[in-house]
Amino acid sequence: MAKDVIVVVQRDALPKPKESLDILLVSTTGAQPVKVYRDIESVKEVFGENGSTPNSKVVRKATTLLNQGKTTLAETLVSKFKIVGFEPPSGSAALPAKFTVDFTASTITEPIATGTDIWMKAGGDDNAVVKATATADVGSPAELAELFEGTSFTKGGKTYTATAESGVVTYTASEPGSADSIPERVNLYGDEIMTEALPYEPEVEFKNGVDAVTAADALVNAIKKFQQDEDNDWYYLMTDKDDDDYVKALAKFAEASEPTEAELGAGVEDHRKFYMGQTTNKDFACLTARAAVIYTDPEFIDEEPDASYTGNVGPFYPKNVTWKFKRPQDGNAPASAGIKLITLPKLKESERDALSENHVNYLTEEYKRQYVKEGVCLNGEFIDVVLGGDWIAKRMRDLLYDILLENANVDYTDQGFALVATAVSQALAEAADAAHNIIARDQESKAGIFTVVIPKYADSTDEQRRNRVMPDITWEALLSGAVHQVKTKGALRVTL
After folding, report:
1. In angstroms, rounded to a whole number, what is the distance separating the alpha carbons of residues 342 and 77?
2. Residue 167 · residue 103 · CB < 8 Å
């Protein structure tokens, strides 16, 4: 029997933890499981000179990442980050594709007479046909295979030439590298017009070639495998590699981490990354998004300006601030040095112009004031714009999943569409608040300057209704630092 009085007591929700930049530092002096570090001593236990995988560069980066308290304008400092260790990356040579025809299990009931012609069609392709002629009677699989020694066919722009051994014919591509796939079948005929099928049924295998892999690409592949198999819960990436080929490969990796609309529609998850690197090349150029690089003179590379820059400005996250006009500290300088910025590079005016044109950041001095210029990614986009846009995407996605998981049903109606749209509106409103400052606010109303267009049920197509896919919710917002009225916009697509 139901009770007449029911008392339910609910506690307040636990406070939401403060957001911080999820930093991953990659070491390449030996395998180490990923681990969260909060102090230098813990880093030294693993990567110090007496650690299991010594890496002085990682120790320096960690030190300068945490030691930015004298010059940062942020109210806090980087308090934690992850480090994972990989074996030293090495390149590998390209390998050719191989098409193998194995006659060892074939039965030859009647010997093939001298002078007999046999035609072989590889992969069912009429353009990949070879002809072999018996120079002696053939009575075994090994002798049958020998007939095709030196024959060749062309497929996908590559010529495949045969060698025969112990009943196996191996057609090897003339050029190494990945090739067009060849179906694993062959047809054998006793006539040129290929109507007289022969009874031999060899086993066939196609093994594709492998493109050459540079050491830099090997590192990127190791990071991708780490993402897939172990840990993808990180966003901001730095490594102990500064050579141009590594920096460019990592910058391209970061750029490719943001899925396209088509990829998202095909089910690819959004795990976008941001890479910060450093270079000693005054002519460094790599027109990519989602990556920023800072220049330093070769003799000062050990100051690890990428980590200094990150530790100096990163603590503001998720609040939006410009990365220009910041003064990274040399975190490895002795205490006796007092407040010491990273060292000002010796640059001519033309060299500074070249760095700026290539969107490479560098410490400069103007009117006796030193600061980093320009606070941009390698494609010229401002760092804060990219970080802010990524935060909006993540927050919007989190809010949407909350709605879908916390409601027993979201109807395919105007009301259901409006409920889903609250994820968009709330994320944009949070992006405009003082704690984030990503989206500009109206000077009078203090409301965020953004618009959200919520579709109606009448806007949906029959196919969308059958598949319960909402028409896109579109939105547009003015970024807070947009002196030139730069806008960001997007669309949210949901299956109910």
Report:
1. 17
2. yes
Q: What percent of the chain is helix, strand and coil (3-state, nearest 5)? A: 30, 25, 50
pLDDT over threshold 90, residue 173: yes
The helix or strand, by DSSP H or E, that contains position 356, with its residue range, turns out to be: helix 349-357
Summarised one tens digit per residue, pLDDT across range 373-425 is: 999 999 999 999 999 999 999 999 999 888 889 888 889 899 998 998 999 99
Count the neighbouring beta carbons within 10 Å of the beta carbon of residue 333. Answer: 18
Could you check whether the bond before residue 318 is cis, i.e. omega within 30 degrees of 0?
Answer: yes
* pLDDT of 488 higher than 60: no
Helices (H), 407-474: 414-432, 462-467
Lowest mean pLDDT, pick from 28-42, 130-144, 208-222, 457-471:
457-471
- For 30, counting Cβ atoms within 10 Å of its Cβ (0-12 exposed, 13-18 middle, 19+ buried), the class is middle
Which long-range contacts (C-beta less than 8 Å, at least 24 apart) are formed by 1-9? none
Separation between Cα atoms, residue 463 and residue 460, nearest integer Å: 8
